[in-house]
Design brief:
The structure holds 2 protein chains of 2 kinds. Chain A is mostly helical. Chain A has 5 helices and 2 strands, in the order ααββααα. The longest helix of chain A is centred in the N-terminal third of the chain and has 14 residues. Chain A is globular and about 30 Å long. In chain A, strand 1 and strand 2 form a beta hairpin. Chain B is α+β, with helices and mostly antiparallel strands. Chain B is built from 8 helices and 12 strands. Chain B has a 5-stranded mixed β-sheet. In chain B, strand 11 and strand 12 form a beta hairpin. The relative contact order of chain B is 0.13. Classes of the chains: A mainly alpha, B alpha+beta. Chains A and B meet through helix 2 of A and strand 12, helix 7 and helix 8 of B. Chain B: It comes from Pelagerythrobacter aerophilus. Chain B: Keywords: Copper, Electron transport, Heme, Iron, Membrane, Metal-binding, Transmembrane, Transmembrane helix, Transport. Chain B: This is Cytochrome C oxidase subunit II. Chain B: Pfam families: COX2, Cytochrom_C.
Chain lengths: ~120, ~350
């Protein structure tokens, strides 16, 4: 019982990456294909397009700051993906035609990319 | 599988039921019926052959003798195929006769020209004059036959809208006429179905079928816009570049985008009706802001893809004839995209 309690107590806060489910990542992938994020970004798991106008998102889970400005948390990432100029004034990336829930799914995909 | 909803190519080739088995008009539906009938006949004949094979190997002696007899060869080998194939041929020709009915000349006409690697689309009035120039997108009225005048500007292409008709080649120096008709509204993807080099696999388009009255309004509004002349000091298109959040500052300016469009050389290949931008080598951009796709039916149309396409179309569609404008700054790309979005 004590062990169990310890485990529960150690449960990471909800904003942590490990709480992002595989389902969300799969939904995020569908959003990425629909909106065609690949027009500007190379992303593991997305065969086409592989645009290079924006930075490659390979190994995104290890990136320190989103767009060199925001701490790399799921909340920040979802906000940035949906409306980059609002999340980071001056951002080159435009706002995307996606909902807040879809943005969270996209963030789940970006963290879940297993490209090590 | 939700494969790129705004990709004409994906819409033409993916989905359930498969587009080629999901006719949305009379011409496609006779082809689909014929395909199913031939398939059913094939299944029947295969069944008979398998049954005969089983009898020949494991069947009782008396049956095997009959199967090996001269009579069986006459019936099964000559009479049966002759009757069935003749019947199918006559039925099939009658069923698909509407596909080759002569054009009456009263149908609406749209000229579609295959280019490397996109489709030029021109709507004609009854006198054969071009009234609307567009690209990579075909608008059709519901339940009204439309004749597509298929041409090619360079090599052999082929136009295929699986939901609406069979394929027809676009041959240099020829005009092939394809009649299409849609019996339900919606979006139907199309592709180039004849290898035409380089990024052939990324040459698609989108068909939109409207209620007849909506189509008439659409055509009239677009024809009016095409006939407009924009005075030199004005910025073509609506000035509206409405940000998602009205409180957010307006960052990109269509007016500045228009100046960049003119001065960067875009106008050498792209036309915007009523302005000095009158290049004809590339797709007409008079209505680009209202198109569903970019890059010839391959990308959804929004600011992100617009910027990505202009900045680096070569990594998206390698070999296409538009250079990557990687010398434009992010700021400049944003202005140009805002301007193009306003071209409805």
């Amino acid at each position: 019982m004590a062990t169990l309690l310890t485990v529960v107590a150690c449960k990471p806060p909800p904003d942590d990456r490990t709480s992002l489910s595989a389902d969300a990542a799969e939904r995020g992938r569908a959003v990425i294909e629909r909106v065609s994020c690949g027009s500007c970004h190379v992303m593991p798991g997305i065969d086409w397009p592989q645009g290079r106008a924006g930075p490659s998102l390979e190994g995104f889970d290890d990136v320190g700051l989103i767009a060199g400005a925001l701490p790399n948390t799921p909340g920040n990432l979802a906000a940035f993906v949906r409306d980059a100029p609002a999340a980071k004034p001056g951002s080159t990336m435009p706002a995307m035609p996606i909902t807040a829930a879809e943005a969270q799914d996209v963030a789940a995909y970006l963290y879940g990319m297993n490209d090590e | 599988m939700n494969k790129g909803a705004a990709s004409g190519i994906m819409e033409a080739l993916w989905g359930w039921p498969p587009p080629v088995l999901d006719p949305a008009g009379p011409y496609a539906s006779s082809i689909t019926t014929l395909a199913w009938a031939l398939f059913a006949m094939g299944v029947l004949v295969t069944g008979i052959v398998i049954a005969a094979l089983y009898v020949a190997i494991k069947g009782p002696e008396r049956w095997r003798e009959k199967l090996g007899g001269e009579k069986a060869v006459w019936i099964g080998g000559i009479a049966f195929p002759a009757v069935v194939l003749t019947g199918l041929l006559i039925w099939g020709l009658a069923l698909t006769a509407s596909l080759t009915e002569p054009i009456t000349g009263r149908e609406a006409r749209v000229r579609v020209t295959g280019e490397l690697w996109w489709f030029r689309v021109e709507y004609l009035d009854p006198a054969g004059r071009v009234i609307v120039r567009d690209a990579n997108e075909l608008h059709l009225p519901l339940d009204r036959p439309v004749v597509l005048e298929l041409r090619s500007a360079d090599v052999v292409h082929s136009l295929w809208i699986p939901h609406l008709s069979g394929k027809m080649d676009m041959v240099p120096g020829r005009i092939n006429q394809l009649r299409v008709e849609a019996s339900r509204t919606g979006r139907f993807g199309g592709v180039c179905a004849e290898y035409c080099g380089g990024p052939h696999a990324l040459m698609g388009f989108v068909t939109q079928v409207h209620e007849a009255a909506d189509y008439d309004r659409w055509l009239a509004a677009h024809a009016a816009r095409q006939a407009e002349s924009v005075s030199p000091g004005m910025v073509p298109g609506a000035p509206a570049d409405v940000p998602r959040d009205p409180a957010a500052p307006q960052r990109y300016d269509p007016a500045q985008g228009w100046r960049l469009f003119r001065d960067t050389g875009c106008a050498a290949c792209h036309r915007i009706a009523g302005t000095e931008a009158n290049g004809l080598a590339g797709p007409d951009l008079t209505h680009v802001g209202s198109r569903l796709s970019l890059g010839a039916g391959i990308l959804p149309n929004h600011r992100g893809t617009m910027i990505g396409w202009i900045a680096d179309s070569q990594s998206i569609k390698p070999g296409n004839r538009m250079p990557s404008y990687d010398r434009l700054s992010a700021e400049e790309l944003g202005h140009i995209a805002a301007f193009l979005e306003a071209q409805k």
